[in-house]
Amino acid sequence: MTKKMWGGRFAEAAAATVEQYTQSESFDRALYREDIKGSKAHAAMLGQCGVISQEEAGELVRGLDQVLSEIEAGSFVWRRELEDVHMNIERRLTEIVGPVGGKLHTARSRNDQVALDLRLHVSARLEAWSGELARLAGVLCDRAAEHANTLLPGCTHLQPAQPVSLAQHLLAYAQMFRRDHARVADCLTRVRVSPLGAAALAGTTHAISPAQVAGFVGFPSTFANSMDAVSDRDFVLEALFCGSLVMMHLSRFCEELILWANPNFGYVKLPDAYSTGSSIMPQKKNPDVCELMRGKTGRGYGALMSLLTLMKGLPLTYNRDMQEDKEPFFDADRTVSASVSIMADMLGVLQFVPAAMRRALARGFLNATELADYLAARGLPFREAHHATGAAVALAERKGVALEELSLEELRSFSPLVEQDVYAVLEFESAVRRRNLPGGTGPEPVADQLAVLRTWLAGLR
Ligand code: ARG
What we know:
Bound molecules: arginine
Strand order of the largest sheet: 1-2
CATH architecture of the largest domain: Up-down Bundle
């Protein structure tokens, strides 16, 4: 009988549309390296455990190496009707080594096989993300070191609030990317668990060693429960969440760079290589890279939502729905990798304009808190100090001058506690310099912060 195993009640082969609809070869062929790595590990383990002979294991490994070189040389013929990467590779292996190729799938199912492939892939990609996140944090450290003495208006509600150093502002992002890096490292501990040996769902009757396979592929541990091993995709979800946070952080930074590049701010000059012109308005230089990165953040979130939704209704264990886990990850990975790397490159050559930041400081009474703190330090309850300062600001605003341009007499009209030394306190440099507690924007805590970040980065190498 040439019919398929389940052919008893089926009169026809799958419709061409169904074959196209159900295949994953068009996208999961991207997993060929991981699939071959996992299969070589499985074959070697089967040989060592005596499930197949050592010679047979050797044949399988040799054949798999040949398949790998054919794929890399571009001579491998991918066949869509073989459904997926696993079947394509196994079919070619059997052509190369003969019937012994059929032994590779002993004690294994595509369910634990695909889970291993995806874990290997996500693991490699997360390691790449880590490297790029560290590079980005390093560029932020370098630019911060250049601008330890550059001051700009720090904002809340996007309104000028208090002066800060540009170094402190840039290092705020370095801290975010450092946390992203730590999140990825933590996620990796759960990704790097080998599911091989779970077989279809219940484990296997063959005397195999899952730990040996894990060792061969470089994973430190193996599954604790065979059913969980083949149905768990939370490791991909965690990776997508890590990627979503990276994109969210990048997107906020892009938003700031877009504002800073606007001539009304003028804090940065976008390098020509990272901006584009307008087809109609000759004067324009648009921050398209930042805008696209902000926009692509939505793709990353979309991938996370798509996989969360995919998984929420699935009974144990493997369901074919799970084939849909790959494309969202591939897409999110392309987005995250390219975005982090382009941001690091762009930041390296971005031109900051300290003079424009300085001009902005002079508008908006950014030293008002200094006056209120000055009065409070002289014993006035802070609420009253706040009130008196508010009145001083109102007067300065009416006169169209800065707070430090009011005369001593004018300032004393709001509180007799004001003396000549107030003018030194009102200087922006002094406002920043005196914020010297750990984590503050003062030069010492910023230098300490930079040192800690650099020690961390050096430890990664
Ligand atoms: N292409 C499938 C996937 O990506 C491989 C696993 C198929 N397993 C199965 N029992 N049909 O999930």
